[in-house]
Amino acid sequence: MRNIVGLLRLKSKPDLRSAPGLSPAARKLVKLCRELLSDLNGTSNGVLAAEAIRLYETLDRPGRLAFFDLLIRDFSPSPDEVGRIAEDYRRDPSPENLKRLQHVVEPPRQELFRRLNIAAGGTRALIEMRRLALAGTESQAPLEPVAADLGHLLASWFNSGFLTLERIDWNSPAALLEKLIEYEAVHRIQGWRDLRRRLEADRRCYSFFHSALPNEPLIFIEVALTRGISEKIQPLIDPDAPVGDPVSADSAIFYSITNCQAGLRGVPLGNSLIKQVVEDLRSDLPRLRNFATLSPIPGFRDWLAREHANPKTALSDVMAGPETAGVLALLGQPRPDECEWPAELKQRLLSLCAWYLLNEKRDSEPLDPVARFHLRNGARLERVNWMADPSPGGMRQSAGLMANYVYELNDLQRNHELYTRAGEIPASGRMERLARNLAGSRKHGWLTRRFEPGIE
Amino acid sequence: MRNIVGLLRLKSKPDLRSAPGLSPAARKLVKLCRELLSDLNGTSNGVLAAEAIRLYETLDRPGRLAFFDLLIRDFSPSPDEVGRIAEDYRRDPSPENLKRLQHVVEPPRQELFRRLNIAAGGTRALIEMRRLALAGTESQAPLEPVAADLGHLLASWFNSGFLTLERIDWNSPAALLEKLIEYEAVHRIQGWRDLRRRLEADRRCYSFFHSALPNEPLIFIEVALTRGISEKIQPLIDPDAPVGDPVSADSAIFYSITNCQAGLRGVPLGNSLIKQVVEDLRSDLPRLRNFATLSPIPGFRDWLAREHANPKTALSDVMAGPETAGVLALLGQPRPDECEWPAELKQRLLSLCAWYLLNEKRDSEPLDPVARFHLRNGARLERVNWMADPSPGGMRQSAGLMANYVYELNDLQRNHELYTRAGEIPASGRMERLARNLAGSRKHGWLTRRFEPGIE
Amino acid sequence: MRNIVGLLRLKSKPDLRSAPGLSPAARKLVKLCRELLSDLNGTSNGVLAAEAIRLYETLDRPGRLAFFDLLIRDFSPSPDEVGRIAEDYRRDPSPENLKRLQHVVEPPRQELFRRLNIAAGGTRALIEMRRLALAGTESQAPLEPVAADLGHLLASWFNSGFLTLERIDWNSPAALLEKLIEYEAVHRIQGWRDLRRRLEADRRCYSFFHSALPNEPLIFIEVALTRGISEKIQPLIDPDAPVGDPVSADSAIFYSITNCQAGLRGVPLGNSLIKQVVEDLRSDLPRLRNFATLSPIPGFRDWLAREHANPKTALSDVMAGPETAGVLALLGQPRPDECEWPAELKQRLLSLCAWYLLNEKRDSEPLDPVARFHLRNGARLERVNWMADPSPGGMRQSAGLMANYVYELNDLQRNHELYTRAGEIPASGRMERLARNLAGSRKHGWLTRRFEPGIE
Amino acid sequence: MRNIVGLLRLKSKPDLRSAPGLSPAARKLVKLCRELLSDLNGTSNGVLAAEAIRLYETLDRPGRLAFFDLLIRDFSPSPDEVGRIAEDYRRDPSPENLKRLQHVVEPPRQELFRRLNIAAGGTRALIEMRRLALAGTESQAPLEPVAADLGHLLASWFNSGFLTLERIDWNSPAALLEKLIEYEAVHRIQGWRDLRRRLEADRRCYSFFHSALPNEPLIFIEVALTRGISEKIQPLIDPDAPVGDPVSADSAIFYSITNCQAGLRGVPLGNSLIKQVVEDLRSDLPRLRNFATLSPIPGFRDWLAREHANPKTALSDVMAGPETAGVLALLGQPRPDECEWPAELKQRLLSLCAWYLLNEKRDSEPLDPVARFHLRNGARLERVNWMADPSPGGMRQSAGLMANYVYELNDLQRNHELYTRAGEIPASGRMERLARNLAGSRKHGWLTRRFEPGIE
After folding, report:
1. pLDDT of res. D216
2. B406-420 burial string, b = 16+ CB within 10 Å, else e?
3. Under 8 Å between Cβ of C219 and C226
4. What mean pLDDT value characterizes chain D?
5. Contact C215 B174 (CB under 8 A)
6. Please, are residues D56 and D126 in contact by the beta-carbon 8 Å criterion?
7. Which of D93, D106, D159 sits opposite C117 (nearest CB)?
8. Which residues contact D449 (CB under 8 A, 6 or more apart)?
9. What ipTM does this complex have?
10. How far apart are CA B362 and CA A393, in angstroms?
C-alpha cells in the first residue's frame, strides 16, 4: 500500500526545546505523532492513535493551541523540498515529476490526522480539533492551516454519499433528543415539553447522521404540517398549540434548520437535506402540495441601518424620504409589533426587505446568508411576512419579518442553474412588485428577471 | 465551503471529436462529469451524480476504458498552470503560493470522484472503477493515474476508523454468507454444507464492514478453535469433521484471510483485523492461550526452483548437495505426500523453508508475501509443518508445508517495531535452528537475531 | 394472585412404585413436577422448571411416553372430588359452587404445563411434548388427555393476536432459511439454489412467528408474482426459470403453504395468513389484481378409485360409462401426462374433479381438505387446471390436476359466512358448468348455488 | 381445530330489550360479540374483533360497565346445562363425561376474550377491560366474574416464559422513558432531570416487557450502585447527587419496584424480576457483593396506631409503657425527623418495627405487603433503618423507617421453601434481637427461628 499512503517526510530535527511553553503531555503527544507517522504500514496505529487522542484530551485549551502551532511548524511541507521538486517539474513536466510534486506539497499532518482517526472516537476528536482551530483562527491567523487540512479531510469523509437521513420522533433515544434541545439554534427548545410538541403527529424532524458518530445529529430540520403556507412563527413553536391532523395538511413548513457541529463548518451537509425530506414527506403524505420555509432574514435590520446612515445612490431618495424615517422611528419603539403601523409604512418596510433580498449582493450572491442557502438549493423566494417573528431576536435581526422560500422538486434543478450560472434570483411576482415599488420611486431600470414556474 | 472544495479547473476546450472511438453514452457521461464539476456548490450533484453512475454502468468494458482515457486527458492538472505556479512558489515560497500550488496539482477528477460518490451506490461504483483501472493497468500503463486517484480517495474513506468488525455466523443473512462462498480465496468453500461447517460452534468468522457497503464483506477471516496449535489444514476444512466444544479449546487457529474487493487493493484493511479478533475471542473464551495462523508459504516452491537452477553463493553447496537433489526428486513425484520421505530429506525440506522465510528478502522484508503480512502485524514465526496441505495447490506453491505465525498481544507492538525499524524477524528457536542447520553446512555466520518472548 | 392461579390439588399419595417401568430420571422428573405444583406462588419455578425440562430431554421416547402416562394417572382431576362438587352444584347452582366446579375439573397438569413454560426453552419443549403425545395417540389412545391439555394451552398462547407476519427473503438468517428447506411439505425445496430462486424478485415468502420461538417459522406461504393466474406448477418451482419483473405482475399465486410445527396441529395459525399477505402485497405492488392459489387436490384420486369401485346412486351411470373407464385406463398408464388425451376424456376428468370439489362432503364441508381450508377462509373455487402437476405425487393424489382458489378481499367475509352458515361453496360459473355436465348426464337436479362476485 | 376450540354455547335467546340502559353502540357491540363467538373457525375474527374493540372504545364508563353486565348475564355457563352434565358425570364418571363437564363450565366469554385478542391492540384493550372490571368490582360485586375470567387468561398469556427482561437507560426511546415518569409509584420522578439522574452510570433500571405490548413496561425496578448497603433513601433519589463509579461499587440497592398495569393486578410478573436482575448485574459488575432492597414498610404506622388503641395481649404492656407513649408523642410532632430522639425511644421504635415485620401475620404470612413480596421471593430481612425516609409519605406510612431485604442467590431457594412451607421468616440476628427486646419486656417465648446464611 506504499503507493497509496506514500513515504512520509518530516523535518529531520524537530527541536522541541525551542517550544518552551509546551507542557510534558504536549511534548509526549508530539513525540507520539512522529512515531505514528514514521510507522511503515500503520500496524500499531490503533494503539498509538488511541494514546495520542487520550493525551490530546488531557490538554487544556492553551496546550491544544500550542500543539496546533507545532503541527504547523513541524508537520508542514518543506519549502526547500517543494521548491526543488517544483523546479524539476518546471524543467521536465513529466507525470513522474507531477506525482513527486503532488506528494511533496501535501502537509504530513494530513496523513497524521488520517492515522489519528483510527482510534475509537478519533473522528469525534478531529472534529473537536477543527472546532478549536477555527475558533482560534479568528484571533490567531496561524492556526488556519490546521483548520484547512482538517476541513479538507472532513469534507471528504462527510461526503453526502456517507450520510444517512433519519427521521427523529418521540421514540428516538432520549440521549439523542437531548441533543436537539442543546443544539437548536433558530427557535430555542424550552425543555422536554416543548420538544415533545415539536415531535407530535403534525410535526416532523429529520437529521443527517454519519456512521462514525452514532446518535449524533449533524444537521437537523424541523417541519410543521399545516393548512396553507405559514405566515407567523409563533403558532408553529407554541408548546400548547393544538395538534393537527397530518393527513389533512397541505403544506410542509420548514421552520428551523440547525447545523450541530461547529467543527464541520463549511462542510456541505445541508445541500440535499431539504430535497430528501421533501421526497420522504411526499411519499408519506401524498396530500402535501406546498413545501416552504418560514425563515429569518438575519441581515436585514443591519443592512437597513447601514444603508440609512450611508445610502448608495440607487436608494438615496428612498432612504432620505419620510416613509423610511417613519419606519425607522417605529422600529425604534420598545414594542414595534404592538404599534399602529400606517399602511404606507408597512408597505415601505416590506418593500425595503424585498429590495434587500433581491438586489443586495455580495459577489454574485445575495447578501443575506439564509437567502444564499435556499437559493443555492434551488428554492424560490415567495413572500415576506409582516411581524412574523415579533420576538426580541426577530425584531433585532429581521425587523420582525420572515420569508417563505418555496421548494418545488420539479424546478429545483432549473432554479439552481439560473441562480448559480446567471445569478438570477427566482422570485414570485409579488416579491418583484414590492421591490419595484421601491425602485419605482427612483424610476430607474430593473434588473431582476421575473420568474414563476409554468408561466414563462 | 469554497475554501474547502476549492475552485475547479478544467481544460477550457475539451474536444470530444478528437476521441473518435467514444460511444454516445460515453460522450454524454463526460459531459455530465463536466457539469458535475462546474457546479458551484454541488446542490444538484445528487441528480447529476446518479445519472452519471447510471450511464457509466451502461458502458461495456472498452467504453469504460475509453472513459478513463478521457479522465486522464481532460481531468488532469494543467502542466502550464502547474509550471507557472511552481515558478511563483520558487520565487516566493509564501503560504499563499504553497496553497495555490497544492490546489493546482490536485487532478480535477479527484473532486469528480468525490461528487460521483454522492449518488446512491456511488461508493460501490467507484470501487468497481478502480478494479477495472487496476486490471487495465497491467497492460495499459496510461490508466494508472485513475487507479491512483481512486486509491487515494478510497484509502481515506476506508480508513480503519470507519470500519466495523462483525462476527458472521449461521444467523447472518444468506445474501452475505453467499458472498463468503464466492470470495473465499485460500481454501475454497464447497457449497453451503461446507460453509455451515465453518460456522459451527468450534469455528469463528469475522469480517470488516463499511457503512456505505452494507452486507458487503471487505476482508474476512476464518478461525478454528482447537486443542493445540494445528499442524494440518485438512481437519480444519473437512465438512464432516466432528464439532468440538469451543469452551474447552486452548487455541484459535486463523486458517484463512480473504480480501474481498479487488478495487480496494492496497488499501490497508487487514492491519488491525487479527488484533481485534484476538481481543474479541479472549473476552469471549477466556481459556484460549494460543492465537496462531496456519498459513500457506506461497513463494517457497518457486524460490526453491529458481535457487536450484541458479543458486546464490551462500546456498550453492546446499543446492548442489544430494539431499536437495533427493528433496526435488520426491517433490517431482505425482503424489509426494504419499511417498516415503527419509528423515534427512524431510529435515532438508523444512530447513530450506525456514531459510527461505528467515533469510530471503525483498528490500528489507521477507520475499514471502504472507510472511510480510503477519510479521508487519507483529506476529512471530513459530513453526513450519510437514505436509500440512497436500492438496495440489498446497504442493505446487508451498511443497505441502504450512507455517504457524503466533500472535501474542503483549508482544505485537515490540515485534512490529523490531521488524519495521531494525528489519529483525521474530522467530522461535526451533525455526532458527532449522535455518542454521542449513547454513551450518556452510559454516558461515548467522544474521537472524534470536528472539523469544520473555527470554531476552 | 392466589385467586388467579388457584390452589393446587394432586392425588395425595402418588405411588411411583406402581409404575415399575419408570427410569430414575423419569421418577425424578415426576417428583420435580410435584414440587413445581406444590409451590405457593411459583417463585422458584424458574429453577425447578428448567431442571424438569432438562430431565425430560434426557428421556428416550419410551421414557417420555411413560412420563405422559403418569401425568394422566396422577395429575388428573379426582373423580370423587368432581362428583362431590358437581353434586353440591346440582343442589345449589350458586356462582360460588360453579367456581369450585370449574376449578376442580381443570387437570392439575394444565397448571404444571404453565409452570414448565417459565423455563428458557419451555415453550419449545411443550410443543415437542404435544407432538409426541399426538404421535403416540394414534396407537395409544390414553395419551389423548395430555395432547388435549397441551393443545388447549397452546391454542391460547398462539392466539393470532400474538403472531407476527414477517417477510422472508434472501437477506434472512441462513439458520431460518435452512428450516424452510427442511419443512416445505408441498413442493420440496431441492437445496439452496432452489430456495434462492424462490426468494428472487418475482417471488415472495411470508411466515408467522411467535416471540417465544425466535427465528422459528410456524406456518409459511410461498407466492409467485406472474402475469395471469398460473395453470401449471412447474414454471413456478423451476430453479432455472427466468426472473420476472414484480412491478409488471398482475397476479400473486400462492403455490405452497406449510405448517411447520407438528406439535401445534389443530391450533388455527393459518386463518389470517393469506389475508394479511394479500394486504401486504397490495400495498407493496399496487398493480396486482388477482390473488389466487395453485393448490393440490389431495383427495381426488382416492375418491375416484373408491367411487369407481362402489359408486353412489347419483354417479352410478357416470362411473359405469365408457368415458370414465377411458379416463381410468389412461391414468393407469406409466406417464399419463405424456399420453394423448381425447377431448371428451379430458373433459370427463375435469368434470369429475369439479363434482368432487363441489358436491362431495364430509359433514357439511367438502371432502377435500385443501378445499375446506381455502373455502373456510372465504376464497372462491375458480378453476381446475389440466396436468398442472404431472409429478409422481401430483399424479398419485390429484390425477395431475390443480385448483385455483381466488381470494378477493371484498368478498372474503361474505363468502365465509355463506360457506360456514349456509354450506354454500362459492365457485366460478365454469366450475359449476363442469360439474353440471357430469350431473347432466343423469338429468338430476342441481344443488350448488351459482355465485360470482358482483353479479347477483 | 374444533377439538381445541370447542363448540360454543350461548343462551339461545338473548333479549337485549331487557337491558334498557344499553346505548346503540353497546347493543351493536354485544351483537358483534355473538357473531364473533358463533363463527365456526374464526376466519373473520380479525375484522369482527377489530370492530368490536373499536366499538368498546367509543363507550363511556357506564356503557362499558353495562357491557360487562351483559357479558355476565348472557355469556356465562348455563346452570341447567351444567347441572345436567354434572348429573351425568355423577352417574358415570367417565373421561368423556368429565370432558363434557369441563367444556360446559367454561364461560363462553372466555373464548370471546380470546377472539377479541386477535385484533390489533386487542391485548391492550383486554388489560384495560380488566382494570375497569377490577375498579368496578370494589363497589359492584357483580363484575367479579369478568375480572376473574380476564385474569385467568392474562395470567396464562403473561406467563413468565413470555416476558423479556430489558435494561432501560438514557438511550431508550423517550416514549418509553416518559412512562417511567408517569408510572413510578414508590418515589415519584420529578421530571426529566430527575429521571436522567436515575439512569446515570451508577444507577440501573430494568423492566419486563411482553411482545404484544411493545415499549410498554409491565413492572420495572430501579437500582443504585453504592458502597455499602444504603441506610437512607434521600441520597439515592437526589437529582443533584454526584455520579459514582459503578465499577467500584460493592452493593446494588433495589430502591423502587413499580407494577405498571392495573389490569394485570394479581398476575405474578415480579417473581423472577429481582433474581434475573441480580444475575445480570453480577455478570456485568463482578465486584458487587451485596444485593439488597431499601424498602418502605407501608403498614407499620397504621398497625402501630391500631395496636396502641387496642393492644393484643402479647403487647399490652409494651403498648401501655412510657416508651411507646414517648414514641407516639414524638411521631405526632410536625417534623419528627428533626426532633431529638432519646436513645431508648429510638430503640423502642425500631423494636416495634422489627416485631411488626417478624410477628404480625395475616394467615401464615407477614401483615406487611412489601415484606410478603420479598420474603416469598426468598430474600432475608436484614435491617430496619432510622429515619431513612423522612418525607411526608415515609413518615405517614412507615414512621420514617425503611427496611433492607437481602437477596443472596445461593439462599433464595432454601429461604423460599422455609418461608412458604414452614412459615419461617429468614432474618438477621440483629432483627431478631430487636424484636426480642420488645418481647423480652414480656418474657414470653419466642417463635422466629434464627437464620443466617452459612452459620447454622
Report:
1. 97
2. bbbeebbebbbbbbb
3. no
4. 88
5. no
6. no
7. D159
8. D418, D424
9. 0.86
10. 69
